[in-house]
Specification:
eight-stranded parallel β-sheet; three-stranded antiparallel β-sheet; alpha/beta; 13 strands; TIM Barrel
């Protein structure tokens, strides 16, 4: 069983030979991230890099950092030259009436297809995972998160309208990926605080579950698996996402809810794509604790179908975790992966 076959089998809860791996060490890597599409916006030209642009700053007069414009027309801001920035002014923040004239980024399908063809992904034995357009994260920025959350109660029709337009914008990107050797699609939508989701399960079920179901159906119709990333406590939403057709969940904090819960309740119906918990475990630097948690995670998922892809966090320096600590976890997982 090669890596591509293994990861596809795990994501579809089918028999496989061992747990999946996606570690920073290339010797233990079943997954290859595909090059993403270039999304462009004519009016963002000249504002792509961080700076103090008078034309952008007039929208955020009280902000004292650097700004830039993203392809969706949002203004991002950062302080002291740090971080990738956060949205400080959304393209649709001022009024939903702007939606009628709103334009999504420019996507050149032919140009993207040529870019993917150069990589010859179809011939790679690894599983190729693509990413481009998410669901909640795009809404969160164009409306600004405070408005977006209120909109789920006060403006659900406008939210649904926007999500349907966003879905239509996503389809040509999925087409190009599927036609050029990409095997799966991952989206990054943070849904939780440390103790609960941002919105009630009832609101999520009425507004967002259908949006994820549309995306899952579109992915599956093109032969793509769908993985959803989220930080925070999202346990109350996962059953709805499984019902929507999501194949896998990428959680960096699996012990916030607990690997035993994820494996016991969902392990035979969905896959989990996780590092050893970055917040409660790796950050301690306690070798015995890290190794025990890594082994326990492998064993509990193996006992419930083995649908686990073990991974590294991509940038350990950002979370004050030494590479050596992560290697302790990887070594235990590699030694404990056989089914």
């Amino acid at each position: 069983m090669n890596a591509k076959e293994r990861i596809h089998a795990i994501l579809n809860c089918q028999p496989h030979d061992r747990l999946g791996w996606d570690f920073n060490d290339p010797n233990y890597k079943d997954i290859l991230m595909a090059e993403g599409p270039s999304l462009e916006r004519p009016e963002a030209k000249g504002f792509e890099d961080w700076g103090c642009y008078e034309e952008l700053m007039k929208h955020v007069p009280d902000f004292r950092g650097e700004v830039r414009m993203d392809p969706y027309g949002n203004i991002l801001g950062r302080l002291d030259g740090k971080t990738k920035g956060e949205c400080v002014h959304g393209a649709l923040e001022d009024d939903w009436a702007l939606l009628d004239s709103y334009r999504f980024p420019v996507f050149d399908a032919e140009k993207y297809a040529l870019k993917l063809k150069r990589h010859n992904y179809r011939e790679d034995e690894r599983y190729v995972l693509g990413s481009a357009v998410s669901v909640f994260s795009v809404l969160r920025d164009v409306r600004l998160i405070s408005n977006a959350l209120m909109d789920t109660i006060e403006e659900p029709e406008n939210v649904n309208d926007f999500l349907e337009r966003l879905h239509a914008f996503t389809l040509p990107i999925l087409d190009v990926m599927a036609e050029n050797g990409v095997n799966g699609y991952i989206i990054y939508d943070d849904w939780g605080t440390q103790i609960s989701p941002f919105i009630s399960p009832r609101s999520f079920g009425s507004i967002f579950q259908p949006a994820y179901a549309r995306l899952a159906d579109a992915c599956h119709a093109r032969g793509l698996d769908l993985i959803v990333h989220s930080c925070g406590c999202v346990y109350p939403l996962v059953e709805m996402l499984v019902e929507a057709g999501v194949n896998g969940f990428q959680f960096d904090q699996p012990e916030l809810t607990g690997s035993r819960v994820w494996a016991g309740e969902f392990g035979t119906r969905a896959a989990f794509y996780c590092p050893v918990d970055i917040q409660k475990v790796l950050v301690t630097g306690d070798r015995a604790f890290i190794e025990k948690t890594a082994l326990d995670m492998c064993e509990v998922f193996r006992a419930h179908g083995g649908n686990l892809i073990c991974k590294d966090y991509p940038t350990y320096n950002d979370i004050n975790v030494a590479e050596e600590w992560a290697r302790w976890a990887m070594d235990v997982i590699v030694a404990s992966s056989d089914m």
